[in-house]
Amino acid sequence: MNIREANIRDYDILVALWRSAGLPFKPHGRDMRENIEKELARGCAHFLIAEEKGRPVGTILVTHDGRKGWINRLAVIPAYRNRGIARMLVEKGEKILDDAGIGIIACLIEDYNRESLAVFQKLGYIDFKGMHYLTKRQHPEV
Ligand SMILES: CC(C)(COP(=O)(O)OP(=O)(O)OC[C@H]1O[C@@H](n2cnc3c(N)ncnc32)[C@H](O)[C@@H]1OP(=O)(O)O)[C@@H](O)C(=O)NCCC(=O)NCCS
User: Fold this and answer.
1) CB–CB of 93/84 below 8 Å?
2) For residue 119, how far is its CA from the centre of ligand 1 (angstroms)?
3) Are 10 and 49 in contact (CB under 8 A)?
4) How far apart are CA 56 and CA 58, in angstroms?
5) Which option is the CATH number for 2-122: 3.40.630.30, 1.10.10.10, 3.90.1150.10, 3.90.226.10?
6) What's the pLDDT tens digit per position in 41-88?
7) C-alpha 81 to ligand 1 mean position (Å)
8) Which of 71, 87, 103, 105 gives the lowest tally of CB atoms within 10 Å of its CB?
9) Ligand 1 atom closest to Cα of 120?
10) How many other CB atoms are there within 10 angstroms of residue 15's CB atom?
């Protein structure tokens, strides 16, 4: 298993991985090729791709704002699940954030996604009770 940093030339691979894992994403908003290109150029986003014998099988997005780290878009294609690939991706993402001096990592999990909640809890993440997630959006697809 090899985990590498993606660049914009990997855009179609990332989209294929999200689709194959059944992960919702925003193809007309922040996940548009142009927007991901800009995000990468800003230098605080790391899209990682896990490859098994050259085949892309999983991905994660790791970002930080200088204060807090975020893990997003963790996805492993169905045929490769339960082999520790998500764990490896998260640990690699945590190392990137640790190296950047970031001591707190957060992730947002939709309420229906009990599976993902269970996975993150296994990986040491604690459900923070009593918090609301508020956003302000330029448009619904952003
Ligand atoms: C969530 C997902 C990334 C997990 O990938 P994975 O490679 O199968 O996970 P791993 O094999 O690394 O498992 C990590 C830990 O979670 C546990 N785990 C895996 N799937 C689980 C499940 N469905 N329910 C409960 N625990 C689970 C594993 O046992 C392991 O714990 P352990 O190391 O203590 O044994 C994968 O199921 C997926 O792509 N789901 C769809 C997309 C998604 O919902 N992503 C999350 C968005 S927030």
Assistant:
1) no
2) 5
3) yes
4) 6
5) 3.40.630.30
6) 999 999 999 999 999 999 999 999 999 999 999 999 999 999 999 999
7) 7
8) 103
9) 16
10) 16
Residue nearest to atom 3 of ligand 1 (CA): 75
pTM: 0.96
Distance spanning both ends of the chain, measured CA to CA: 33
The b-or-e profile of 32-54 (16+ CB within 10 A means b, else e) is: eeeebeebbeeeebbbbbbeeee
- Map tokens 């996604």 to a residue: 113
Q: Over the chain, what is the mean pLDDT?
A: 97
Tokens 């448009």 correspond to what residue?
A: 139
Q: Where exactly are the structural domains of the chain?
A: 2-122
Q: How far is the CA of 115 from the centre of ligand 1 (A)?
A: 7
Pairing relation of β-strands 2-5 and 45-52? antiparallel
